[in-house]
Every structure is written in structure tokens, then in C-alpha cells.
Write a structure and sequence with these properties.
Layout (H helix, E strand, L loop, with lengths): L17 H17 L3 E9 L5 E9 L13 H13 L6 E8 L8 H10 L10 H32 L5 H8 L9 E5 L8 E6 L14 H15 L2 E7 L12 H26 L5 E6 L5 H14 L13
Parallel strand pairs: 2-7, 3-5, 3-6, 6-7
Antiparallel strand pairs: 1-2, 4-5
Protein name: Protein C12orf4 homolog isoform X3
Organism: Tursiops truncatus (Atlantic bottle-nosed dolphin)
GO cellular component, one term: cytoplasm
């Protein structure tokens, strides 16, 4: 998967935009002053007969914190990038899931923020984020063209049989967009802790409280985990509530129902992994928005070991 390498002069300095780094560091400082970072870690064993150990983490953090370089001077940036580069062609890659709209660009929302972080440091291995998105657009355009051609054939056949043309009209309206549950991938060597970003398309339906395990967003997570199994991505970060920011309708019952759904679905997907990759130990990080309360965070933390089988230590004492 990590195969496209761009030659660069070894003596060339890593280019960093100081203004963006300074603004990013100051913004991070303000965020952590307002909300203390919370984290809980768990070790679980999944499987029927042959069990596999996995690590789970629950964090209250910004998803882009895994992309930003945390540093106080330029040398820190180079050392951190070197660590990421050393694992770039390993079998222990790191990825994260970004929730995006159906347009393939970097013009708004978290897509724009992610693109800004990607531009802070030069990527010597993979094309720039804009170039990667252009390739994705071309692939989607080709796929939509093929799908439209097949729909047109069925439409012509349906007309002969008295059928309707609603599907063809719908295909025309969504010609250049991706659908909820679909995702595209970008690769990076210049980010802090990740190599791969999965851009998962979701719509406003994720804000409702009645989604099920068959929702496109949930099925998209399943397909993302399958890609992780086939491409040596052993650490994946997932937005637990399927949103990056909280809003008024996201009450405590809403959060508990959504977390329970995602926990149970991810557990099922992880058990499927054994048949996909033979049972490789992985790390799954569940992130909740920074604006969530500490009380809500610890309620979610208490829910996780009830759904997953958390390993416990056994203390042996000898009788004298």
C-alpha cells in the first residue's frame, strides 16, 4: 500500500511554515486550558477458541491532535517526523477516520482544517493532499460514469416495459458526489501519528437518535476495518459518537445510545477480523469531542468494559 515514493535531496531541509505552527500551538494551548484531556485504556481478548488480544483507548480529544506536531522548536518537528517515517513501510501503520460531507474537496469544515495541517510540513513520499483528492475525483467520476451507463441501459429497458426513470434522475443529481457510507483514502508521511486518513462520508442522519447497525455510516466503519486488515493498519482512531462536534440535540441519553451502538458494532467487526487477517493484535482508539463533560466521559468509560471482555489480573497467594 505504501509504495509511491518521491525522490528528494537528502540535504534538503524539512520545510515548515512557522506562522501556521505558532498559530496551531497557541490554539492547542487554549483548548487544553479549557478542557483537560481525558484518557482510559483497556486490554481485551476476543475470539471463540483462539483469542486475540487487542488494546482499546477512550479519549476526549480533537481528532486532528493525531495529525498535528506538538513541539516548541523546529528540531522537535524533525525528530517526530523521523519516528513516523521509520514506521511508514512497516506492518504497523496508523490511521484515523474523518467524517466528511459528500463533496471531495478541502474547502470547508474539518476537511479544510485537515488540509491546513497537511500543508504545515512538506510530504516527500506522497503527493500533496490536493493532488490526492484530484485523483479520487477522477476515480469517482469514472465509477459514476460506469454506474450511470448501466442505469441508463436498465432505464431504456424499463421504458420498454413501462418502468420509471427516477433512478436515472437521481444518478444525474449525484453525478460527482459520493454516497453516505462510502469513503476515500489519503496517505501521508508528514503528520504526527498517522499514515492513512479514511474520509468517511456521512449525512445529517448521524445526528438523529434512531440509526441502526445497518446505517451507511456503521457499514462504512466495517469496510474501513476490513481495509485496515488487508493493508497492515494496526492502529485506528474512530469518532465514537459519529460526530466531531456536539450540538443541542445530543443529550446524555443520545450519547449513551450512540456509544452503545458503536461499541457493539465495532466489537462484532473486530471478531470478524480474525477471519480476515488470522487474528492480529490491534489498537482501536475511540474519540469523543472535547466539549463533552467529564461525567459523560466516565459514563462511557464504564460502558466499554461491560460490552467488551476486559482482561483482569489474577493475584496468586501461597498458603503457609
Amino acid at each position: 500500500m505504501m509504495c509511491a515514493v518521491t525522490e528528494a535531496c537528502t540535504s534538503e531541509e524539512i520545510k515548515v511554515q512557522p506562522s501556521q505552527l505558532r498559530e496551531s500551538a497557541e490554539a492547542n494551548g487554549r483548548i487544553y486550558e479549557e478542557q483537560r484531556k481525558l484518557e482510559e485504556s483497556f486490554t481485551i481478548h476476543l475470539g471463540a477458541q483462539l483469542k486475540t488480544m487487542h488494546n482499546l483507548r477512550l479519549l476526549r480529544a480533537d481528532m486532528l491532535d493525531f495529525c498535528k506536531h506538538k513541539r516548541s522548536h523546529r528540531s522537535g518537528v524533525k525528530l517526530h517526523r523521523l519516528q513516523t517515517a521509520l514506521s511508514l513501510y512497516s506492518t504497523s501503520l496508523c490511521g484515523l477516520v474523518l467524517l466528511v460531507d459528500n463533496r471531495i474537496n478541502s474547502y470547508s469544515g474539518i476537511k479544510r482544517d485537515f488540509a491546513t495541517v497537511c500543508q504545515e510540513c512538506t510530504d516527500f513520499h506522497f503527493p500533496r493532499i490536493e493532488e490526492q483528492l484530484e485523483v479520487v475525483q477522477q476515480v469517482v467520476l469514472y465509477a459514476r460514469t460506469q454506474r450511470r451507463s448501466k442505469l441508463k441501459e436498465s432505464h431504456d429497458s424499463g421504458n420498454r416495459n413501462g418502468g420509471s426513470d427516477d433512478k436515472t434522475k437521481n444518478a444525474d443529481r449525484n453525478y460527482l458526489n459520493i454516497l453516505p457510507g462510502e469513503f476515500y483514502i489519503t496517505r501521508h508521511s508528514n503528520l504526527s501519528e498517522i499514515h492513512v486518513a479514511f474520509h468517511l462520508c456521512v449525512d445529517d442522519n448521524v445526528k438523529s437518535g434512531n440509526i441502526t447497525a445497518r446505517d451507511p455510516a456503521i457499514m462504512g466503519l466495517r469496510n474501513i476495518l476490513k481495509v485496515c486488515c488487508t493493508h497492515d493498519i494496526t492502529t485506528i482512531s474512530i469518532p465514537l459518537l459519529l460526530v466531531h462536534d456536539m450540538s443541542e440535540e445530543m443529550t446524555i441519553p443520545w450519547c449513551l445510545r450512540r456509544a452503545e451502538l458503536v461499541f457493539k458494532c465495532v466489537k462484532g467487526f473486530m471478531m470478524e477480523m480474525a477471519s480476515w487477517d488470522g487474528g492480529i493484535s490491534r489498537t482501536v482508539q475511540f474519540l469523543v469531542p472535547q466539549s463533552i463533560s467529564e461525567e459523560m466521559f466516565y459514563q462511557l468509560s464504564n460502558m466499554l468494559p461491560q460490552i467488551f471482555r476486559v482482561s483482569s489480573t489474577l493475584t496468586l497467594t501461597s498458603k503457609h
